[in-house]
């Protein structure tokens, strides 16, 4: 039997958090859950949202369309995004170049810096202090879909935001275009921040961007973020490793190497009952993944959990044994972003709905 829950996030706007008197803080536990929560919109920067349009509207001055209404969201796909944004992007480059030249007294000014910044799984309070400082000092920020709206509120008023997010079947920018944008603005002397959900170097393609820029002579600094595996596991009280239960943890991508339906080309080695498996981007290929794990010897009663929009106010969890896992997720209707954790450590969570020999049943089955 599966357990599906909604839980609240204890996030608050970081601007308010920074101004709060520390003596008034009350301790909270991320394991105090409620089963219902009301939330009107996604905490993330979905590609059709009114919030995204309002943040990026400086790019569309040449043609000033009205922001989409809620009823129009699904059809508000700007297929000519890049063409319509080019004039304002070029204008911004000119402004930055003039600013750099005026600041150089006859000398040769070098390029600006690029920061690859991890913003964590969604809760803005999981940002590092260094990430906040860099975000607030940037000239231009290129951000992904899984950067939360609360994080974007930290951006300085005079900084520019540019959406470069990707979803299945829709890439607002190709990876090559993102490379060129980072390079062009860094060469113009700008401080450029590349905002990524989670950690930039864990399934975030940060390594590709770093390698490209370094080959062009651009200095790149990586500011790590709390990857979804750590942040979400902590939120649920799941230790990714635990003495006598799991001796290692392995991060996998649910995307097939060649775009097919077989996500787990390392299944034979990954089906280890003493290893915790964390699967990113694995909703679509989970049925194949789960079956292959069982075919290669992982017990069918292995505990598992899928977490939608982890650490945010819209978090939902589906707990189930591996044999029922794909069916229960489909019944719950989970959507991206969803993280999957498979392994015996899952039953150590206070939310695990089954009584077992290895863990006390702290939450009764529903």
What does this protein look like?
The strands form 3 sheets. A 6-stranded mixed β-sheet has the order 1-12-11-13-10-9, with helices on both faces. The longest helix is centred in the N-terminal third of the chain and has 23 residues, at 81-103. 29% of the residues lie in helices and 16% in strands. It is elongated, with a radius of gyration of 22 Å. It starts with a strand and ends in a 24-residue tail after the last strand. Helix 10 packs antiparallel against helix 11. It has helices at 14-18, 50-56, 81-103, 129-137, 149-152, 175-187, 206-215, 228-236, 267-270, 286-295, 322-332, and strands at 3-6, 114-118, 140-143, 160-163, 166-167, 170-171, 192-196, 220-223, 248-253, 275-280, 303-308, 316-321, 338-342. Among the domains are: 76-95 and 111-226, Cobalt-precorrin-4 Transmethylase, domain 1 (3-Layer(aba) Sandwich); 229-348, Tetrapyrrole methylase, C-terminal domain (Methyltransferase, Cobalt-precorrin-4 Transmethylase, Domain 2, 2-Layer Sandwich), CATH 3.30.950.10. The chain has 366 residues and is of the alpha/beta class. Strand 9 (248-253), helix 9 (267-270) and strand 10 form a beta-alpha-beta unit.
């Amino acid at each position: 039997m599966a357990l599906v829950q909604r839980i609240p996030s204890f996030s608050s706007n970081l601007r308010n958090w920074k101004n709060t008197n520390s003596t008034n803080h009350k301790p909270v536990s991320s394991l105090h859950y409620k089963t219902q929560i009301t939330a009107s919109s996604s905490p993330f920067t979905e590609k059709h949202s009114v919030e995204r349009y309002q943040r990026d509207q400086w790019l569309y001055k040449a043609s000033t369309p009205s922001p989409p209404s809620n009823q129009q969201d699904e059809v508000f796909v700007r297929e000519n995004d890049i063409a319509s944004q080019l004039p304002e992007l070029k204008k911004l480059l000119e402004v930055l170049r003039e600013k750099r030249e005026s600041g150089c007294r006859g000398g040769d000014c070098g390029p600006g810096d690029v920061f690859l910044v991890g913003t964590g799984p969604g809760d803005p309070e999981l940002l590092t202090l260094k990430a906040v400082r860099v975000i607030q000092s940037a000239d231009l920020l290129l951000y992904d879909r899984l950067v939360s709206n609360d994080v974007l509120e930290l951006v300085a008023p005079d900084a520019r935001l540019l959406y470069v997010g990707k979803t299945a079947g829709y890439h607002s920018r190709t990876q090559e275009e993102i490379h060129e944008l980072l390079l062009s603005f860094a060469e113009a002397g700008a401080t450029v921040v590349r905002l990524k959900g989670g950690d930039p170097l864990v399934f975030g393609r940060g390594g590709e961007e770093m390698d490209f820029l370094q080959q062009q002579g651009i200095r790149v600094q990586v500011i790590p973020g709390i990857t979804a595996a750590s942040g979400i596991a902590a939120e649920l009280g799941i230790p990714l490793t635990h003495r006598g239960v799991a001796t290692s943890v392995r991060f996998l991508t649910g995307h097939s190497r060649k775009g097919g339906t077989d996500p787990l080309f390392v299944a034979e080695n990954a089906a280890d009952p003493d290893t915790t498996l964390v699967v990113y981007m694995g909703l679509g290929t989970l049925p194949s993944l789960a079956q292959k794990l069982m075919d290669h010897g992982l017990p069918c009663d292995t505990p598992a959990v899928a977490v939608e929009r982890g650490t945010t106010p819209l978090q939902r969890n589906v707990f189930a044994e591996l044999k029922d896992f794909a069916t229960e997720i489909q019944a719950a209707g989970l959507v991206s972003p969803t993280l999957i954790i498979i392994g015996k450590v899952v039953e150590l969570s206070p939310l695990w709905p089954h009584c077992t020999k290895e863990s006390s049943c702290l939450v009764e089955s529903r």
